[in-house]
Amino acid sequence: MTHTLFNPFKDLNFDEHFCFLSGALTNENMTVFPVWLMDHFKLGNERIEMMDKTKSYNYSDLKLPCSSEVKTAFEELDVKVEAAYKKGFEGMASLDQELLFQWTGRMVYGMLYYEMLYERDRLLRQGEDFEISVTLRKRFGYFHLMLQSLIEPISFVGKKPWSIAVFPLKYSADIFSYRNDAVNLMFSFGVNEFGFIACLQDNGVIGEKQKEILDKMEGHVLHPIQFEELYARFHYSDYILQYKPEYKIENQDNGIAIEVETAGKQPHFGFWDEDIYAQLLSNYWQVYGIEKEDILKFQMPPLSFLENPYTKDFINPESIDLPF
């Protein structure tokens, strides 16, 4: 990287007195999850688990050290997103995807930050040094740089570094569905009226892979079980994606330009294993009592609520007789 902006993954700097985004010295903090979102869904005292399931926090207790500048920038972003949220699908779909990247990126990075702290402290108790692989340092460093577009003159040239899909969704009132995969930089969010799925550093590759089903969905209001299946497709696609995103980063007179590198190794997906995918999907469908054995039956195509397995036609959400 040729830029000189703060990169906490260079020296694994996660000190509480340095702003998580700019690196400026600070004694202030902000919540990982937007206050308006926690208030609306009464999440403050709910628990959220870390990846290894041995540690959990109240949503409201998750906080990031930040400068006044960064805190103000995210507060202004929250105002825009909350206003769009109140307009439902149309409002959220009208938001610039860069804003959605920044808004979801705050929560994904916040959880990643806590994962780093947890791992650092765990190793410290064992008398070991805190290290992560060069590959992860580079990947997370790129993500952090892109998130700084909220406060720095950073532009994205050509192809965007993310896949973000926003779509109408039917839920019972006040239900909130949320998933955050910090290590794989993935996020999903679903409420009544809309849902969206974000792969924050795939260079749009997964969105392209799922374009056919996204096109078929257009004009329909998804049933929640379809939303879960769609996220499973994105998640498993990320798992089998054999591709390391690379970027051309240039310091220019008016800021930093980030461009997806298209030369060299092209995106490639590994073998789609229906058995592994069915296990993943069953985890998302367990609320409906659907097990892996129901998804994969002998001499039958895999169960799907998105596409008819024989004709590949999109399944009308209104035809699905399951609770929402």
| H/E element sequence | EHEEEHHHHEEEEEHHHEEHH
Question: How big is the Rg?
Answer: 20 Å
Question: Oligomeric status of the shown chains?
Answer: single chain
Q: Strand content of the residues, in percent?
A: 15-25%
| N-to-C CA distance | 46 Å
- Report the average pLDDT across residues: 93
So how many helices? 10
Query: Structural class, from helix and strand content?
Result: alpha+beta
Q: Which strand order spans the largest sheet, edge to edge or round the barrel? A: 6-9-8-7
Net shape: globular
The main β sheet shows up as:
4 strands, antiparallel
Low-confidence stretches: none
State the share of residues found in helices, binned by percent: 25-40%
Query: What is the number of strand segments?
Result: 11
The count of domains is: 1
Overview of this structure, please?
This protein is α+β, with helices and mostly antiparallel strands. It has one domain. It contains ten helices and eleven strands. The strands form four sheets. It has a four-stranded antiparallel beta sheet with strand order 6-9-8-7, with helices on both faces. Strand 10 and strand 11 form a beta hairpin. Helix 2 packs across helix 3, helix 2 packs across helix 4 and helix 8 packs antiparallel against helix 9. The chain is globular, with a radius of gyration of 20 Å. The N and C termini lie far apart (46 Å).
